[in-house]
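stage 2 :: seqdesign
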């Protein structure tokens, strides 16, 4: 594997809580333990989408972002549970406290996952694997929850590793095995490769990292645009991105490109609920509220538009985000054109009207795609 000889080899941990919302509900309510539950949606499949499914429900094929009706069909015994975001936020705060015992270089991605750089750790343990074990044990002992951890020398590989042995897994991918591991990885397992891109790759005969590796950087850019350069590096295990505990950007959001074009308002609104949940999670993590909500739409013909709504006061609650996004969507006559991408962004964080003055910048996240 190619390395930058001028850079220090980092020790990166990616922690991802297991079925976070559902696990909190099962922990707090004995009646839910060992049962197939779905957080979000509604009983008897009357509407909405699943936010998180317990592992008992996942055995039936129930998954995040699935319409409630479909989830109920797959698992007739499914119990729908109303989300308690305040509870999840408090648990997330305590998880962050556990992380901070070992490092201040913590980059949260949402309420239930984060990157940690433990190259230099506070307790002088020295081993990222041992630190990951301690974190997992503390989460189990203090919060009665489980987390999965991935350990490697960069963010990309650590994130993939954390997903390999869920739930309650710990996977280490060392420097000498990264490139061979990437060559064997199916293209759909590469974070950043969504369903649409994976399907395109497979139509081109690209099924694994080894297949991607046969293409030059220019070939990848020709077929996939600027992101082709990213694919070229990651398939070789190269990721120089630092863990960033504070990001000063001007917006926070999430978006998703769909495996098929959306043609009904009901499907569009269901996707907005899923995306809005991700945005809400990130707002809660950073204790942010914004004055402007923006809806991004990309149509099947690749034409892209944005619509926004500004408020005289900061907003950040889940209901306002979703209802505003739905209203912005309705104003575009959504039934007229198939949609391939939707996104929701909040901006103008902690900014007072001009007459009141403005506060200083706050740490914010850049835009991430949400794909399970």
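stage 2 :: out
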């Amino acid at each position: 594997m190619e390395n930058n000889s001028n850079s220090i080899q980092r020790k990166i941990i990616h922690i991802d809580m297991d079925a976070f919302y559902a696990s909190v509900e099962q922990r707090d309510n004995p009646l839910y333990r060992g049962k197939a539950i779905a957080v979000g949606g509604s009983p008897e499949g009357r509407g909405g989408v699943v936010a998180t499914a317990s592992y008992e429900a996942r055995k039936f094929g129930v998954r995040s972002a699935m319409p409630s009706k479909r989830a109920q069909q797959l698992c007739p015994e499914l119990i729908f549970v109303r989300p308690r975001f305040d509870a999840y936020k408090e648990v997330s705060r305590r998880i962050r406290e556990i992380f901070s015992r070992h490092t201040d270089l913590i980059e949260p991605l949402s309420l239930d996952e984060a990157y940690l750089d433990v190259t230099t750790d506070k307790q002088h343990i020295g081993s990222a694997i041992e630190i990951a074990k301690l974190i997992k044990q503390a989460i189990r002992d203090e919060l009665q929850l489980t987390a999965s951890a991935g350990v490697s020398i960069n963010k990309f590989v650590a994130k993939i590793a954390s997903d390999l042995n869920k739930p309650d897994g710990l996977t280490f991918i060392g420097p000498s095995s990264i490139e061979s591991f990437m060559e064997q990885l199916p293209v759909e397992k590469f974070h950043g490769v969504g369903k649409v891109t994976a399907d395109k790759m497979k139509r081109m005969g690209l099924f694994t990292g080894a297949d991607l590796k046969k293409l030059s950087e220019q070939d990848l850019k020709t077929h996939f645009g600027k992101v082709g350069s990213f694919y070229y590096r990651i398939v070789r295990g190269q990721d120089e991105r630092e863990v960033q505990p504070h990001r000063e950007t001007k917006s926070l959001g999430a978006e998703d490109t769909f495996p098929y074009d959306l043609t009904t308002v009901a499907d569009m609104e269901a996707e907005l609920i899923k995306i809005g949940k991700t945005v809400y999670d990130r707002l809660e993590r950073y204790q942010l509220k914004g004055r402007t909500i923006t809806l991004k739409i990309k149509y099947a013909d690749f034409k892209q538009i944005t619509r926004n709504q500004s408020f005289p006061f900061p907003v950040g609650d889940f209901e306002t985000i979703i209802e505003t996004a739905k209203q912005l969507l309705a104003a575009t006559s959504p039934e007229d054109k198939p949609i391939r991408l939707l996104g929701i962004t909040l901006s103008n964080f902690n900014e007072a009207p001009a007459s009141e003055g403005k506060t200083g910048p706050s740490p914010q996240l850049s835009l991430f795609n949400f794909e399970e």
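stage 3 :: structure notes
- The two ends are 28 Å apart (CA to CA).
- The chain has four domains: 12-19+86-175, 21-84, 178-234, 251-369.
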